[in-house]
Amino acid sequence: MHKSLGMVAMSKRFFYDMFKKAWAVSFTPENIINAFAKPGIWPINSEPVLARIRRPAPKPKTPSGKVKTPLTTKRIRQFTIQFQRSPSKLRAEKGSKALLTLAAENSILKHENLGLRESIIKENQKRKRGKRLNLAGEESSGC
Q1: For 90-100, what is each residue's pLDDT tens digit?
Q2: How far apart, in whole angstroms, are the C-alpha atoms of residue 5 and residue 115?
Q3: End-to-end Cα separation, the chain, in angstroms
């Protein structure tokens, strides 16, 4: 259910199992104490709240003459040609960063794809009708 990316509607069949696991993990004495300590309610400490409200210092702008990391097919082709003409350590680092970024993106997309496939299977399982049972819990003869 959690891998379905919101494509499978929540039903009574899925709810209790998920609720029970979440309840057991979240309602511990340590979590309850931390829930009051994090915002500074107990023990009293206003600094965590004020730190979130304060604006961070602006980041300095990067000069436009630097080599950018290529993330599209066209930019990777252009980058490869430039690197072959004049290789440098900076370009090698940018190429390496591009490979890592694209590999991570590929991994995320594969994970999403798997989750969507599982959601289709779950949805099909939800739509299947079970066998009718009589009052004694045995399969009915059809009448």
Answers
A1: 999 999 999 99
A2: 7
A3: 36
**How high is the pLDDT of residue 62?**
62
- Give which of 113, 89, 109 is closest to 101, Cα–Cα: 109
The DSSP call for residue 139 is B
What average pLDDT does the segment 53-73 reach? 78
Q: For residue 70, which amino acid is it?
A: P
Dist CA 21 CA 1 (whole Å): 13
**8 A C-beta contact, residue 14 and residue 6:** no
Whole-structure pTM value? 0.49
DSSP string, 10-68: --HHHHHHHHHHHHHHH--HHHHHHHHHTTTTTTT--HHHHHHHSPPPPPPPPPTTSPP
